[in-house]
Amino acid sequence: MSHLSSPPKKHKGEHKGHSLPHGSERGSSSRDKDRSATVSSSAPMPAGGKGSHPSSTPQRVPNRLIHEKSPYLLQHAYNPVDWYPWGQEAFDKARKENKPIFLSVGYSTCHWCHMMEEESFQNEEIGRLLSEDFVSVKVDREERPDVDKVYMTFVQATSSGGGWPMNVWLTPNLQPFVGGTYFPPEDGLTRVGFRTVLLRIREQWKQNKNTLLENSQRVTTALLARSEISMGDRQLPPSAATMNNRCFQQLDEGYDEEYGGFAEAPKFPTPVILSFLFSYWLSHRLTQDGSRAQQMALHTLKMMANGGIRDHVGQGFHRYSTDCQWHVPHFEKMLYDQAQLAVAYSQAFQISGDEFYSDVAKGILQYVARSLSHRSGGFYSAEDADSPPERGMRPKEGAYYVWTVKEVQQLLPEPVLGATEPLTSGQLLMKHYGLTEAGNISPSQDPKGELQGQNVLTVRYSLELTAARFGLDVEAVRTLLNTGLEKLFQARKHRPKPHLDSKMLAAWNGLMVSGYAVTGAVLGQDRLINYATNGAKFLKRHMFDVASGRLMRTCYTGSGGTVEHSNPPCWGFLEDYAFVVRGLLDLYEASQESAWLEWALRLQDTQDRLFWDSQGGGYFCSEAELGAGLPLRLKDDQDGAEPSANSVSAHNLLRLHGFTGHKDWMDKCVCLLTAFSERMRRVPVALPEMVRALSAQQQTLKQIVICGDRQAKDTKALVQCVHSVYIPNKVLILADGDPSSFLSRQLPFLSTLRRLEDQATAYVCENQACSMPITDPCELRKLLHP
Q1: Where in the numbering of this chain does the Spermatogenesis-associated protein 20-like TRX domain appear (predicted)?
Q2: Strand pairing partners for 140?
Q3: CATH superfamily assigned to domain 64-227
């Protein structure tokens, strides 16, 4: 392998790390230090041309991407590039004309994707090179995660990192031979420019094609062997106790004692890690390590909620922090973060009883309902980091979210009565949230100088300290700050908004159904559970094909708020099934409506049929037919920004076994965990959600049965008691006494459980044995949380 420039420490581009704690996160911010782009290659390449060739003003003539539905592809529809979407037409052209394929992968809220589009893909000369010497293909990684995973595997294996935009050159048979991430348009002192890369590859293809093809085949064969995940000769998965302790120790070593979180900047929320720590605490709560695990998770969640990674004005969380203090974020907002963090903060409230955490969870869901929700119940994908500071201006990262001292003073000039010194509402808010005249963003985090004098709101003091500083009552300060934030929120509405990616993905909608269902159940708020129900109805109405039983991956917002689909439809991937099944199981436990459980079972059957590896165990990420032609068929082996679909599937299989008693699902879960044994043994911290599933499989699942009428007050009281306690390894079953009901047919033992004195009655069952009947919620709580 040779590099076209000296290897940097990391790629510029949205970051994808090799292992947790960073995880497979999106990442490098536009304020990160400049880094040279690296090109990975499977063959040496000769030098190419240099020089600066500014683009002429592009004519607004659309290319064929204008006919696509993806917001990301539509962002490139007016490039002077002969773009193709991923598909047979592009592949046939490459083979017929014997040209390499240039594959460019990104997503619509990716800052560095915007940069490369503006600098290179709008450049007329670069556009001619791409159109004449290559078959250029654009892919939205959120539409085609299978394509993204295959070629990201190549880029990460043959270079020093990975990220988005991802740019890979392929043979006409779709085998990769050169890859990289972001490229500047022209050569710099320490980095190679995109135009130079294109010229070198063009020359190499003409002069040395056979060597390229041979090396490409060799790399592909090596990747196949390296990426194989299989049971092999193993019969059982590893010891859960060993994996748990190793995972905890690895997290403990990387923990930031002062600010929470793991590793150094950039710092990511990683809800999968927090979920693992809570589970670890529960099974080790009488030990020092157990207490520390709880403290690590709670402190991290508190520091994140106080930091600038949280939008204190409009709620919700930004993608990640560019510093270790959670202060200056990369400002995009992703649906999957909101979904998982709502659950994490709800669990923190269950465990601690501190309403600080439940308030954060409610704020997240308030943001999603307001800004990421379709009127028919579905959820949009993301909001961009960039927006124009004022209409007509060039977009800048964070412009929608930052404030100057002058703006705040003008919006909040009212004097605060009773303070020990002259004080306005604006001064109180600026003190509490750390705003300064010079701005609170370090120049090192703003190399382009776009955020000079601007401030990111981040909590600097507790309410008690701020109140004491000015001799005020704590509740008065709370009211003044909330009123001030509401005025900032109303003022912010007049700013140009960031781009909304209104594409709807089944997987992320499944996560969001879980977010609303779990939080609504924990807090006892039917209104939140209704959002989850509407989300599930949306999935069934718009993203499910009744005839085939398959999920669709995507749908889109059409004109007038209608829902549209691509033609042909984009069918679901493993993560779509796994995350939707999880959402439906969470929704059943929150609502006790068995129709959602029935649908979850049917989807699990379809998932098993389409993705299960009957030879090696575990699930492939994509259907065999859908990924036809791709050089690899992968099993995702990392819990990162989102959990691995195999990790989630392991949990789903355990829960479905608990709901139905079907042994096949327990057997599949054991096979899956066995197939991933080597990955867990090697780096358990890369699979914390799967280690959690391993622990659940090797412990005893609780079946908590409530016998009663769903709408009765005494039934609801027992159900709410169960939801108030943190019990990750359980299923909650409502037995309404109807022997013909779905659950009664699945679990015959339910017919033996009776209501006591005609009251709603709870039973806690483990290993085919049930507790004595309980009618008092307080007694039930004692049994569940000794």
Answers
A1: 62-223
A2: 106
A3: Glutaredoxin (3.40.30.10)
